[in-house]
Specification:
- The chain contains six helices and no strands.
- It is mainly alpha-helical.
- Helix 2 packs antiparallel against helix 4, helix 4 runs antiparallel to helix 5 and helix 4 runs parallel beside helix 6.
Length: about 150
Amino acid sequence: MALIIYFVRIDFSNMRWLYGLIIIGVGLVLYLSWEPNPALRSVWFVPDWVAKWTDTQAHESSRTGVPFVFLGLFIGISPLLSNKSFKHWLVALLILVAVLIAAEVGQLFIPTRHFEWYDIGWGALGSVLGLLTAALARFILVKLNWQKK
């Protein structure tokens, strides 16, 4: 509930910082996908606890979905999708999947990496979860603002 109250106080008219997070997120996904070593413990800015979780074999494919949950959430709460139809939300999902495909296709040119359909599936699932969370938050905010009137 505190998270919803926090969102109510955010001024959605000036969201440049959110667009910056989206751009940084896409850049990080591409950078980490195209690193020759898939183990994140070799990346200097990744915290040890994150690297330990992502580098286990059990999370090898599912880890792709995590950044896309956040990217979907950031895109979903941005003014880009405010008061838009389902078609616009679907286009946002397709753009996120296009980023996933670009990341995977780029791995075809790196000898130590390989293309995996599972990564695309997990990333798409993460994107859907992020967008659904944003849509739910928007729905709740609309209801809260309606009750205030």
